[in-house]
Amino acid sequence: MTGQAQLLPGTLDLLILKAVSLGPLHGYGILLRIGQISRQALLIEQGALYPALFRLVRQGLLKASWGTSENNRRAKFYELTAAGRRRLREETAEWDRLAAAIASALSAKPGEV
Amino acid sequence: MRFAGYLRSIAARFFQRARIEDDIQEELRSHLQHRADDLEREGLVRSEAERRARLEFGGGARFQEECRETFGGNSFETLWKDVRFSLRMLRKSPGFATTAVLTLALGIGANAVVFAALNAFILRPLDLPRVETLYSVHRVTDNSAAQSYPDYLDLRDRNRSFEGLAGYNILQAGLDTGGNPARSWILAVTGNYFDVLGVRPRLGRFFHDSDEHGANSAPYIVLSYAYWHSRFHEDAGVVGRTVQVNKHPFTILGVAPPGFRGTLLILSPDFFLPMVNQEQIEGVSVLENRAQRWIFMTLGHLKEGVTPEQAAADINAISSDLERAYPKEHGKWVYTLARPSLYGDYLGKPVRAFLTGLMLLAGLILLAACANLGTLFAARAADRSREVALRLALGATRLRILRQLFTEAILISLLGGAVGLWGSVMLLDALSAWNPFPQFPVYVPVAPDPSVYGVALLLALASGFLFGAVPVRQVLHTSPYEIIKAGSTDRLVRRITLRDFLLVAQIAICALLVTSSMVAVRGLTRALHADFGIEPRKAMLMSTVLDMAGYRGDAMPEMQKRMIDSMETIPGVSSVGLVDWVPLTTGDGPGMLVFADETVELRPANAAAPALLFKVSPGYLAASGTVLLSGRNLSWHDDKSAPGVALVNQELARRLFGSGSEATGRYFKKRDGTRLQIVGVVRDGKYENLTEDPQPAMFLPVLQSPTSEMSLVVRSDGDPQHLAAALKGKLRELDPGLPCSIHTWSQAMNLVLFPSRMATMSLGVLGVLAAMLSITGIFGVSAHSVGKRMREMGIRMALGAQRREVLQAALGRPLKLLAFGSAAGLLLGILAAQVLALIVYQATPRDPFVMAGVVLAMMLLGLLATWIPARRALSASPLELLREE
Asked: How many cross-chain Cβ pairs, A to B, lie less than 8 Å apart?
């Protein structure tokens, strides 16, 4: 597939937190949401998602509960906890700083140095 | 919080496993259905959509595995895998595993045994209610707790600090339940003893203060549980029965509970009786005598809120009053309070010091064992660096590899701990049942209890972590790339390291201990066959106290003569002699000051010598193997109506007259001025212990100095067992009510030989421990150096090196360390033997057997330790090694 970026290590958790922050979602929904908000630029491997979800639940950043999906099927819904919201804020700020720094580094021109 | 969560997830894993599995399964199903829904919407038929969804998702099993991994509870399965892997690895190197397990078993076993002793003697108090307020009264001045009965009554009635003050003394008495007299050890206790201690009877009742109405008014006894068990077979009907104690009727009131053995930790009495009946036991009353400090110890619970210091001040005030009132019987004494279980500091201090020292030593042994195992582990980790590198390259985390290494270390330490504990429990059981001196009711309470198991487990885990931690740095720094490319990257280090120094020290200590124990063993064997001036072999001792059967005055010598005559009729008996105290049996013999005949003023300072005093029958010299050098033997005519006579040994003759030859016929004086004529001189002998210098001794005729306490020395070539039975039978014919004990003289010498036996045994045990440590130490270093240089060995062999050269290159260094350490240890051992000679008779290192033995032992040790590494070095196949790289 073209036009898809390689996921940087550690960014999967951040993306999940972001996706869930927009409203409770089940696992498959999270996959779709990440595709949607990254304009299909980022695609998550399906099997990698669930271990990450379990990890985040165990860290207390997400909480899960069974419910019924829009397709009228039983599904496990994930939503942010207070700790998860805080983590999302911190990681977003961190990411922004890093991205800005890399962008400024890469945009440097010969004359500026 | 996090830890609690971890525990919860473990619990969840164990108790709700099915629910969680279902949860994962269901979520997976839900995911696949949602995906299939989407695919269906894109136009696929349902079955095809579901197939596609499953394919896209990939392996469900891997997914579940990863989820479980995240769950945490999975560490049990990981652990189990690690354990199985470790077991496989250990099975692959049995030499390593055995060495490691045995080393730890010795280290941990030693610690468990010493801790059990420490626990029994110091940490665990007497098994009594409110034992923390129980104190005994000790005189600092002469380091004794003894009191006279009148003083005890004053202390008991006038103190304001104790809830009640009790006292006891240790006595021997004959107990006869009807034709079966036996010597027993008893506690003569004050009437309030059981009430003060708060002990409840197991059966019947105890006696109380209210049972006493003056001297000999309370003819009651209380049996100890052990005695009730062994002598009366736990017959509940004994309560109320009347028995004879030293020929006086006493009524059995009750039985003490199983845990109660009086208040002295190491003593286990047979029964208890009231102190007011003391006269019936000993023949003479001491209850009125303020000068005779007859009570062994007084003790009691402090009143609430009273500190030991306040109580001591209280006792001291009473003591000063008593000192003023009875200046003749009292000195200026200072009292303090102490714990009764080990007689205050008298036994407590040396026991504490000894056990603390032992504990430290055991700890050091374990530490040294851990250091050695650490080296071994590092060598192993280095050997396995390729395996580790491969696993790292295949994606294992370093944590996972470390965890596996630690699992291996802990596994070894637990195995070692289990083996060590098993050994120590066997040893402790034997120790608890062991009585080194059959003459005394010694009780060694070292049965293991849960705290011993706990300590062993803790030590095992701690040492596992300790030596498991040694290779951690090595693993953390492993770079898979470097190792697979170039093999082991360690450089050869050629300098003296701390590890070398430690190893030499260990070997030296080992050689020292091996030397010392061989010197001790040789000394001991020689001592048993040495010339003591007496001949303990082929002699039987029958000991009794005539008092116990009610013999008094003239009845005593008459009975003694009849006993000797009767025993002489036993077939095979060559001679029978009587003596009041048998040499080389129990500690200090009775002594007396001897004065030259010219001395007028008989003060201690003017005495010619202190001499041991033996009261003997004429047959004693022959029976004991004492040689008469000049003059005549004593005879039955040396009785009360004849002039006082004595035999002296050479040493006493020398002290009195300067030489032994002309002593016969001359006189010396006793302290009371009585003159005794020397009728003969006998050879010097060993009397109190085997290492003593010649001591002056004299032998007085038993008819002139009567004694109630007596032993018959019966010399016979016959079988000791038959002889013992015959002796017992003859005695029963003469007097069925006279209790006696029968031992061979060699058996009775246990007490005298105890220090040298103990020294030999401890040295032997320590020597084995040290040897084990040295073996693992040398093994570790050799394995390390061989492992590191395998490639070099291969190349050397490829270039044509001989086996000898390869071995020299591989093992030269550890063997040099061994030689150096052994030489140092042997030298130290020769020096130490001088000290050893003070404890063990005839211990000398100038003995070719010892020298050869030590050298042989150390060589054997080196051979054992380097066997496996040497075989490995020799097996280095140049082809394989070079191909591997």
From this structure: 62
Q: Which of B9, B35, B67 sits opposite A51 (nearest CB)?
A: B67
Same domain, B354 and B207: no
Q: Which helix (H) or strand (E) holds B717?
A: none
- Same-domain pairing of B86 and B188: no
Statement to judge: residues B219 and B318 lie in one domain = yes
Where in the sequence is the domain holding B834, given as residue range(s)? 491-531+750-885
Tally of structural domains, chain A:
1
Pair (B704, B609) in one structural domain: yes
What is the rounded distance in angstroms from the CA atom of residue B883 to the CA atom of residue B885?
A: 5
Q: Which residues of A touch B (CB under 8 A)?
A: 26-29, 45-47, 50-51, 54-55, 58, 69, 71, 73-76
B880/chain A closest Cα distance in angstroms: 42
Cβ within 8 Å, pair B70-A54:
yes
Across the interface, whether the CB atoms of A29 and B35 are under 8 A apart is answered no
A98: domain range?
11-105
Q: CATH number, domain at A80? A: 1.10.10.10
d(CA B331, CA B326): 9
Our count of domains for chain B comes to: 5
Å between A96 CA and nearest CA of chain B? 29
Q: Are B57 and B32 in contact (CB under 8 A)?
A: yes
Q: Looking at the domain assignment, is residue A21 inside a domain? A: yes
Residue ranges of chain B whose CB lies within 8 Å of a chain A CB: 5, 9, 23-24, 26-28, 30-31, 33-35, 37, 56-59, 62-63, 66-67, 69-72
Q: DSSP letters along B348-412, please?
A: HHHHHHHHHHHHHHHHHHHHHHHHHHHHHHHHHHHHTHHHHHHHHHTT--HHHHHHHHHHHHHHH
Q: What residues of A are in contact with residue B2 (Cβ under 8 Å)?
A: none
Query: Is the full-model pTM beyond 0.80?
Result: no
- The series of mean pLDDT values per 10 residues for chain B, 885 residues long, is 58 60 81 87 87 77 60 63 84 81 88 88 80 90 87 93 93 82 88 93 92 90 92 91 90 92 86 92 84 89 92 93 88 88 78 82 84 81 76 74 86 92 89 72 78 90 87 72 56 58 82 83 77 87 84 86 92 92 81 87 84 93 92 91 92 85 87 90 88 88 90 91 90 85 84 76 80 82 76 78 80 85 86 76 75 87 85 75 57
Are A28 and B59 in contact (CB < 8 Å)?
no
Tell me the chain B residues in contact with residue A75 when contact means C-beta distances shorter than 8 Å: 27, 30, 34
The dihedral through the CA atoms of B333, B339, B342, B347 has a sign that is: negative
Q: Which residues contact B89 (CB under 8 A, 6 or more apart)?
A: B408
**Other CB atoms closer than 10 Å to residue B758's CB: what's the count?**
13
Give A51→chain B minimum CA distance, Å. 5
Contact (CB<8Å) A58/B71: yes
Task: Write the ipTM.
Answer: 0.87
